[in-house]
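chain below, 164 aa
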Amino acid sequence: MPDSDALLHYTSITEPQPLYVSLDDNSPAYTMHLIVANTRDTPVYCNKITLYLPSGSHEADLVGAGKISAINGECSASWTFKRVSDTEITITPPNNKTAGFVGIKDQDIKSALYIAALRITLRNLHINTRIGTARIEITENTGETNNEAGFFRKWHYYPVTKFP
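prediction:
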């Protein structure tokens, strides 16, 4: 089974880098910038991205149990960052509309509807104590035309390595 059927591409940068597991409750918190872009030739339209952050004490969990409620964040391009639950965060375009991510061949499009990339910042990540690879589940409501009737929920698992 593939790790993704998403139309958008995801990558990240952490501060500091690389991401180290916590030694105890006094270990520093991390910041992760998740960059969302379109690597296709033509535009991709999106009206919601949802992040599910795994928490607990296992290798596949990102943050420690009880530590996820401290996470806060923001988005670039006036998108809205909203906590839905302890593990779920939704990201929506301004005014809950649809936004277009320009395609590689369309970089010269100049319109408020289109963006080149989106930065989602997650702050105050208290990484759990287990070395391994956590997988952030990302779902996106996207389509290849600016018509929500043609949007589908696509998913992607983004791996995050935690070093000793």
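The chain has a mean pLDDT of 90. The CA atoms of residues 10 and 101 lie 13 Å apart.
thats it, cya
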